[in-house]
C-alpha cells in the first residue's frame, strides 16, 4: 500500500512537470496570459506620442509672459473627439439619481425588516445581502466581516438593480415607496405652475481615490493614509447663465439648456473642476463594471488631460500652428469662421452662433478632434502657475498640486476673442467655480506602445 501511494505521488509530480515543460520548455517565458489588444474607447481618438514646442511661438499679444516656448514630449493617449455633451453628462446624473433612490429605498426596507420575499412592497428593493439564498461563500463572508462597520453602516452594501424603479405616482408599490419618492422632490412650497422637480442637492456622488504622487514621495505612512474620499453634488449649476452676465436676459438658457432634448448634443457647462473629476471616476467605474460582468480585464481610468496633452492634441500635429487648423487666420478661404467665438467688435452672432453650438460643429483638426478652439473652454488636470513652464519636466509635464486651486482652462469659448482660441494661450479658473463658458473632455492613457507601422501611417496622413 505504501509503495502504491508513493508511485501515485511520483506519477502525479511527473505529469505536472511535463505539463509545465510543454509550455515553457524550461525557459523564462513569463506568466502565460492572453495577448493584449487595446480597444479604442467609444467616441475617442488616438493621439500618438510625440514631441512639440509648447508655448507661445510668436508675439505674446496679451503680454502675460507665462508661456515661454519649451520642447516637451507626451505619451500616447485617447481623447474624446468632442466636449462632453449635455446628453452624456445627463447619463451620469441619471445614474446617480437611480443609485440615491435605490439606497433610500433599501435603507427604509432594512429599518422595517422587509426583504425580497415581501412581494409588492418596498422589500423588493432591499439590499442584496437581505437575500442569502443565492450568495456565494465569499459574498457571505464579506457580509459577516465587512458590512455594518465604520461611520456609514450601509457603505459597502450592494444595491438590488434587478427591479426597475417606478416613477409614475399611480404605480407606487406601497406607502413606504411613496414616502421615499416624496422625499426626493422639492417641497410643495418650492414648486410653481404645478411642476414639482427633483431636489438636485440630493444628487451626490461619493467615491474614493488614491493620491499616488503623494504616496510615492512620502518616506513613511500606510497605504490608507493616501486614500482620499470625495462626496459632492454633481448637478450642473444652471444659474451660471444669469450670474455670469449681469444686466443681460439669459433666462431661457437657464431654464432649458441642460435638460431639454434640443440641447442634448451641446457641450455641458456649469460644471466645476471637481465635478468634472467625479464624472471621470464614474465613467471609469461604469465601464469597468461592465468589463467585470463580461469577464474582461479592467480598462485604464478616464481622466482630465494635462495642460501639455491638451495643447499637443489641439495642435493636431501642426508644428508652430497658431490655431488647431494652423492659421494664422480665423476665417476660411470661403469666408466662413473656423470656430465659435466672439469675432470682430463683439458681434456674437457673426460666426452663426450666439451661445454654444453642437459639439460636432465646424471642421475637426488633423487628429479628428472638434472644437479644440472656441465653443467652450475646457478644464485640464493641471494647476495654473505663471512660472510652471520653467520647472515642469520635459516628459509628460504636469504642474498638478492639491494646494493650488487655480486650474488651467484651454481653448477659449463662445464669449472670447480670437486670442484665447490660440492653442498656446493659457487661462485659469478656480476649481470650485462653474461658468457658462467652461466644459471639459476626457482622456485615457494608451496601454503599451504604438508600433512603428502605426506611427508611419499617421505621419503620412
TrEMBL record:
Domain of life: Bacteria
InterPro entries for the chain: CTDL_fold, Glid_motil-assoc_lipo_GldK, Sulfatase_Mod_Factor_Kinase, SUMF_dom, SUMF_sf
Gene (UniProt): gldK
Protein name stated in the entry: Gliding motility lipoprotein GldK
NCBIfam families: GldK
Species of origin: Croceivirga thetidis
Domain Sulfatase-modifying factor enzyme-like residues, every copy: 44-443
Keyword line: Lipoprotein
Pfam family, one: FGE-sulfatase
Lineage of producing organism: Bacteria, Pseudomonadati, Bacteroidota, Flavobacteriia, Flavobacteriales
